[in-house]
Predict the 3D structure of the following.
Amino acid sequence: MSELSHLADAGASRMVDVSEKPVTRRIARAEAVVEMQPATLALIQDRSLAKGDVLEVARLAGIMAAKQTAHLIPLCHILPLDAVQIDFDTAGGASLRIETQVTVTARTGVEMEALTAASVAALTVYDMCKSVDKGMTIGRIRLLEKSGGRSGHYEREPQL
Amino acid sequence: MSELSHLADAGASRMVDVSEKPVTRRIARAEAVVEMQPATLALIQDRSLAKGDVLEVARLAGIMAAKQTAHLIPLCHILPLDAVQIDFDTAGGASLRIETQVTVTARTGVEMEALTAASVAALTVYDMCKSVDKGMTIGRIRLLEKSGGRSGHYEREPQL
Amino acid sequence: MSELSHLADAGASRMVDVSEKPVTRRIARAEAVVEMQPATLALIQDRSLAKGDVLEVARLAGIMAAKQTAHLIPLCHILPLDAVQIDFDTAGGASLRIETQVTVTARTGVEMEALTAASVAALTVYDMCKSVDKGMTIGRIRLLEKSGGRSGHYEREPQL
Amino acid sequence: MSELSHLADAGASRMVDVSEKPVTRRIARAEAVVEMQPATLALIQDRSLAKGDVLEVARLAGIMAAKQTAHLIPLCHILPLDAVQIDFDTAGGASLRIETQVTVTARTGVEMEALTAASVAALTVYDMCKSVDKGMTIGRIRLLEKSGGRSGHYEREPQL
Amino acid sequence: MSELSHLADAGASRMVDVSEKPVTRRIARAEAVVEMQPATLALIQDRSLAKGDVLEVARLAGIMAAKQTAHLIPLCHILPLDAVQIDFDTAGGASLRIETQVTVTARTGVEMEALTAASVAALTVYDMCKSVDKGMTIGRIRLLEKSGGRSGHYEREPQL
Amino acid sequence: MSELSHLADAGASRMVDVSEKPVTRRIARAEAVVEMQPATLALIQDRSLAKGDVLEVARLAGIMAAKQTAHLIPLCHILPLDAVQIDFDTAGGASLRIETQVTVTARTGVEMEALTAASVAALTVYDMCKSVDKGMTIGRIRLLEKSGGRSGHYEREPQL
């Protein structure tokens, strides 16, 4: 197992130098799941048939958070993202699944942007619904796929 | 089950008016768990015996994120936090558990600050270790306890 | 006509000292109008009958901008806002009217927050629709009402 | 009339994918007008003959806001701007006209940056002068010209 | 010599809990000095007799930075500042002295806000003049006075 | 001595147009020194042998500040930094020296990013230690080296 790339020799953290890496088109996909009571999910779904809705607020929060990633995760690079997309579906039981996809043309990848977008979208769902369901749990935040970088294509094996 | 408090009558989102709520001391505790390979956890633990370390970067990222909560979660209120504390322990298997506690003296609570701190600390752990373990999964992000508000004391039942 | 309160004696700008002013509940209301082609307004209205919609994105942008006011307007004070509300209606012809209301319990007022929310909501409408109507014009950004401060109640005379 | 480009098929908002667009030099010009009492304009002009001045504060606020555009307008792209310029003139009657020009070398244009700079500069003028003239109105925020993109050159017809 | 208050028992950093401290009016004053070539100082002074000027840009940058202190210094508290003031004078030889004063009504002091304002104002002077004098040095950034807190009045002994 | 490049002809500040400059790899190095009491330095050094430590917090604050430079220094360009590195050593007497290096592939240099990183790291050291040593002074903030731009290589002559 190789070294942790964010820690320099003496154990000091640093932002990894990417200046020698090629500029390529890179895509990352991630997900998060919010488990809640069935009545909460129903409430979200009913609202979303009307005008304003929990999912739209969550979606925008996720997109905006993707753009703030380098200011949240200390050692991330600032990247001029080409695209951010966030989708929702139900994930079995009373679970809401959030899937994000981020695209960039740059020297480093956008895993953290995709994961941050998923996390903040999930936190926003919590915030919107916490008055009715404090027990909601956010989980399964993970990278689904990553392409375009030097380390090759990565895709998580379907398991769950 | 009551209405979602962030949506006004016509379905439009709004920031809930808290001006009639009393200023009280409020505390919230939350957690997140990062599941990883045993070798990754060992690497984090070894590093943390040296100087720089993954956990310290994650801790600072979480504290700083707590202060940015109102700019990440669209309908949250800006709150002048009194304290933010973040602790780590292992959670069984190759899991790292993050526990956060946020304190404020204000008209509304800090659940979202505690949850955001936990989430961003977990994302930072992912970022610091992703070069060796892309498959890490963040989960169990949830509120543990909340006190000081009008709605009374909330404590999640111990279950897992 | 009195002095401009943001400029100190020697002509230097400064953030006005509000520490002697009383903490009171303060409210400000503002508006903005976006003039567009009738077909653009129709498109906004049709979308808003579906799920995602221009107005909801604009609303959230305005709310989030209200919270960023002190970081946009150089001499504004950071204020822990109690509430932000944004409503839309049509304003005669093919015009969309945006009305904002901001509430705070603080030593200074929230006119700038109300005006900033209206402006950024309007800019977001432009951004969402610019692919179909580059000629849209934003206007009539103005303070409608202000209460709770030392200078008394202000309400703009109805004129237009 | 074509589709609104920020809304995906199911009505969900997304950040438009620009990764297939060519990197070109792009320029946008915008304007805003602040209508005020003649005595207010005189006060601004007299100050500007001295040292500190309303226009310089407004200019800097506009420039800094241009750089924050992607964090204010939810679906805008982060762009490494090459230049931002802001000029002032009087616009007939007691009106102050603000003209902005933004330049970038990127995959998408800077209309929103130019419009945001103009809006925030105008809001700052309001903030600096509101102690003497609460009735000021900001208007005529609009795109004047846009060049360098795939959609060709756009210039607003002179009308007013 | 007492413990460093930002490090909890196990060596972990945390944001100090100020919830038990009284809300009082607190003031801090700080300074910074920019040493430069005489010709550079002359250039700054001549410009400042005209319209735009280096000092005004630096002043605004310092004021805005004071408001961002909690987002720059990881363990600082967010504070709703009552006032920020920045003055300039020459400090002997070809040196520009910057003095800042920050006021707040809060549970903790504003030393870091005063120091941050001075530092960023000085950095801005460097940025504005670096095309003519890369060798400028910023120094003597230090706290001059602090009042209103539990630890009593602090005033640096005049020495230099 | 040439003109100050940030001021346009009429004395108005503007962000310099860099669109005609070539994209090259650029590096800047800067330093800052924090003078303190010997007991304070000992305390920092002892802590750094343990787990959490002042230097690690300062390092991260400096790295994150480098990424915020364009939002702190009004006329700086937003740059997608390739790398940021921060090192510490003692500088004779009871002084802590901070050295920063920033790398970018862009149309303009990163002097301000290197200087801002050094300054904010130094301010963070002050914040972490101010409970034991309010008299600490930050000084010698200066550019050490700059390469890769049109103006050629710059290296400060060793003097101190």
Notes: Chain B is about 30% helix and 30% strand. The interface with chain C takes residues 8, 12-19, 70-71, 74-75, 77-80, 106-107 of chain B (CB under 8 Å). Residues 24-150 of chain B form a domain with the Alpha-Beta Plaits fold (CATH 3.30.70.640). The mean pLDDT of chain B is 89.
